[in-house]
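Objective 1b: paired records.
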Amino acid sequence: MTIRRSSKDDQQNYTKLDNDYVRNTDKAINRKIQARKRKMRRIAFFAIVPVVIIAFLLNILLNQNETLAAKEQKKIEAKKHLSELKDERDSLNLKIKQLEDDEYIAKLLRKDYFLSEKGEIIFIIPDEKGQKGDIPEEKDKKDTISEKKGKKED
């Protein structure tokens, strides 16, 4: 018979019997401890793995939501730009229709280039600040000529 000493407590000296019963109970206790360790490992594995998988899926979901929100914002901006372009197209179509009208062109030429019809006199009114404006000198001479012609006809 061999004498075993317990390593748990060095102050107590006691001997452990070394017979079949003690060995069998030690083996049974060790098996229970090992089974408990395996069980805890299994529980930890089946608890941690789903948490990791759920965290991974939540991360993917959040990234997709951010991407979706960014695309929705781009879609809103694109719709706004589209409506602006449609408004611009409508105004340009109106401008085209107006430019097809001879009366509108004549009115536009009279306004922009200070052209006049026969017997018509053009008066240039200064701005509120007292300045004459962007009218070149040639236009002023033309105005005075138009005024002289208008006086001769009377």
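Objective 1b, second protein:
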Amino acid sequence: MMTLDKKYRDELMLALRLHDISGRRVGEVLAEVETHVAETGEDPVEAFGSPREYAAQVAAQLDRSTGKPSPVDNALGALGTGAFVFFGITFLLDGLWAGPNGVTYTLADSIGALLTLALILVAVFLSFRAGTASRRGAARWGPPRS
């Protein structure tokens, strides 16, 4: 009877958590791998591949039953909320400053508001990408290492 070595187990657990897989599902995957290795005596790398590869396969197979919303759903929700808040505040402030004459909007005002919103969204998107890259170690300052 062969047991799963600690190095493979630790690397697989880390790789699964880096894919933002829930702790419950990580435990299930580790139990599946340990059971397979114990029953067959097969090397885990031969049976499942490297920990990173197997974690990517597991993450690709997950569905909505994990209880975590997809990043696309989060991004679309945030985008919609941001647009409503931005335009709501813009219209509110314009209405408060307009006085008794009321508010008049031109095509240029509408285009300007849309361009401002687009610039804000691009800045936020680039900030998140930079933060994600630096956390994963992909962002390097200076020349590439050889």
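Residues 107-135 form the longest helix (29 residues). The chain is about 70% helix and 0% strand.
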